[in-house]
Write a structure and sequence with these properties.
The structure is a single chain. The protein is built from eleven helices and four strands; from the N terminus they run ααααβββααααβααα. By secondary structure, the chain is mainly α. The N and C termini lie far apart (39 Å). Helix 1 runs antiparallel to helix 8, helix 5 packs antiparallel against helix 8 and helix 9 crosses helix 10. The strands form two sheets. A two-stranded antiparallel sheet has the order 1-4. It has a two-stranded antiparallel sheet with strand order 2-3. A hairpin with a 2-residue loop joins strand 2 and strand 3. It has one domain: ABC transporter involved in vitamin B12 uptake, BtuC (Orthogonal Bundle), CATH 1.10.3470.
Length: 298
């Protein structure tokens, strides 16, 4: 394998890993605050792609306005899911919350199957994202250049919120001790809703760019990306935002390189992420950035 091919696959893996990272951050934020693995998170990503199509075709919004509307609308969907499904179980056992999360996932998938059918729909790709660049023998799709940049911008904004705003400080306090934070006068329900809003907005952004990169959507499209994003969150250190992003990058690069190095195993590419996760958990159960979790999450 020559250097050009290696660079090409590294670039492809970085773009794919950026998508996993965007989705994984939502997983890790919700778990960091309320210790809930929100298995409906991948389906929220799917909801975002359908909202994007509808906002363009039904509301006749330009693509950039449709994307902004989608992120905001999906954030509201995340808040609604928390209010309806998770808030009533705030003091219930974790297994009850986990089962509820799986139920929400099935509900969203089947709701969209009933409304839109199971036939994949083409996702319109704006001209600005459809070009291809050639640099030194490496083919660079424009959308694959945008994805890592957008992921890093969202990560920087989120880290600023966590470190420098009152809501961010409250989220970090809540991740350490919910009851003490409540006794100090913080509106715990509002903070948790804010966490769901941010996580769902990031899932929507990940869904939009996933659909731009692979322009075909269906109601079950969020299952595998959601599982891999969960693996990325655990790999990086569940509860750590930078860890989730790092885990996404690693899984994306490993998945692409493994297929490039072992082409006969291309049919098993989805297994590489979970094999990597198993090895990491065997030797470092807290994940790559797990040390930070001892001093508090995020």
């Amino acid at each position: 394998m020559n250097l050009t091919i290696v660079l090409q696959q590294l670039f492809n893996g970085l773009a794919l890993g950026s998508l996993y990272g965007l989705i994984a951050i939502g997983y890790t934020m919700v778990y960091g605050v309320i210790r809930l693995i929100n298995f409906a998170h991948g389906d929220i990503m799917m909801v975002g792609t359908y909202v994007a199509i509808l906002s363009g075709s039904a509301l006749f919004l330009p693509w950039w306005a449709a994307f902004i509307f989608t992120i905001l609308a999906t954030a509201l969907v995340g808040v609604l899911i928390d209010k309806v499904a998770y808030k009533p179980l705030r003091n219930a056992s974790r297994i009850s919350s986990l089962i509820t999360a799986i139920g929400v996932s099935f509900f969203l998938e089947n709701l969209f199957l009933v409304i839109f059918g199971g036939v994949p729909k083409a996702f319109p790709v704006p001209a600005v994202f459809s070009g291809v660049l050639h640099e030194g023998g490496v083919i660079l799709p424009v959308i694959s250049i945008f994805v890592p940049l957008v992921a890093l911008v969202f990560l920087a904004i989120l880290m600023y919120i966590l470190r420098n705003t009152k809501y961010g400080i409250a989220m970090r306090a809540l991740s350490l001790d919910m009851e003490t934070t409540r006794l100090m006068g913080a509106n715990v329900d509002a903070i948790i809703s804010f966490v769901f809003a941010i996580g769902s907005a990031l899932a929507a952004a990940g869904g939009i760019f996933w659909a731009l990169k692979y322009p075909s959507i269906n109601p079950l499209m969020g299952i595998m990306p959601g599982l891999k994003a969960f693996a990325a969150a655990v790999l990086g250190g569940i509860g750590s935002v930078p860890g989730a992003a790092l885990g996404g990058f690693i899984i994306g690069i490993i998945e692409v390189l493994a297929v490039a190095i072992f082409p006969p195993l291309a049919g098993y590419k989805d297994a590489f992420a979970f094999l990597l996760l198993i090895f990491v958990l065997l030797f470092k159960p807290t994940g790559i950035m797990g040390e930070d979790l001892e001093r508090g999450r995020f």
